[in-house]
Amino acid sequence: MKIKDWIRMNFPLALIGMLVVLLVMVIQSFQLPKTESKTVVGCVLVGERADNGWNKNHYEGLAAACRAHDVAILAVDDVAETESATYTAVEELINKGANVIYLTSFGYGQYVDEIARKYPTTAFFCISDKGRAKNCTSYFARLYQARYLAGIIAGQASKTGILGYVSAMPNSQTNRGINAYALGMLTVNPDAQLLVRFTGSWDDEAEERKSVALLQQAGADVITYHADNPYAIDEAEKRGLLSIGCNDVIQQYSDRFLTAVVYDWQVVYEKVLGDYLSGRVNFNSGYWLGLREGAVKLYPLSGAVAAGAAQVEADQEQQMMLADIVFSGVIYDNHGRLRCEEGERISDAELFSGMDWYVKGVRIYE
């Protein structure tokens, strides 16, 4: 075939091909530059991020998880658990680019659904059982498991048979901790009593110190607490009382400081954030990590803890690695009502959001 004939036969196809290439180039020249959506984490704290307590532990745990996953973090401190303050903090974070927001205190839960529906493209994680919006879920750590173990230590150490507990306010979160601690206490001292005084605040140094004094006057010789800062422990040390810490241990105490129930929030946040980033997060069910995952633990025991008590605690901890035994078997409340029968276990749903009662041995200070 002559060259002229070949060109005459194939020229139309070549021309069409050239036109297609030219058209693609023109279309691409009018496309907007591609942008990658980046995750920015927002954190709402009820107190100062450097408070050496609850807020510091949350911020540092979340910040460490963000570094591990190479994402940015923003935080707003001192956000009251009110509707206006919560909204303002969330809007500030979203305006700065946050598209994943962690609400790190229980009280924010009463507003989270409405906020989540207002911002449907933002993911919300809240320490509360209130989140029902499709872009919201709950997360927490099973500190009650460590509380149960600490109750064993405290119950064995008490000479008076009265243990003191300073707590912010009654809700499912604080109540299950109180009950778990009491159940641990009763395993080693069936006649012991747990005397609880509520302060009405997560952070009130004067009232927490006053509570320790009142509990001591009522006979308590071992003190623990559930609040943002260790003021109760400081007061117990001052008064020569035995004590059990909470959240974290940020200073050296005497041997009278028997142990502490502590969180590892980095473990929790790495799991929750990792699931979100990989698309595995399930907004239909929350996260509740415990001893087995390393989310909670006991601080190393003081030398003042008796060998027998330490062995009982260790044995119970080993059992708990196999099954959550805290709220199982026969449990009566402090009014004599049977709450759990042999062979049963109280459900996670009740533990998380329905615990409005106290076990046998618990007395509320009036």
Automatic annotation (TrEMBL):
Residues 38-299 form the ABC transporter substrate-binding protein PnrA-like domain. Keywords: Signal. It comes from the Bacteria. SUPFAM superfamilies: Periplasmic binding protein-like I. InterPro entries: ABC-Purine-Binding, Peripla_BP_I, PnrA-like. GO terms for cellular component: plasma membrane. This is Nucleoside-binding protein. The lineage of its organism: Bacteria, Bacillati, Bacillota, Negativicutes, Selenomonadales.
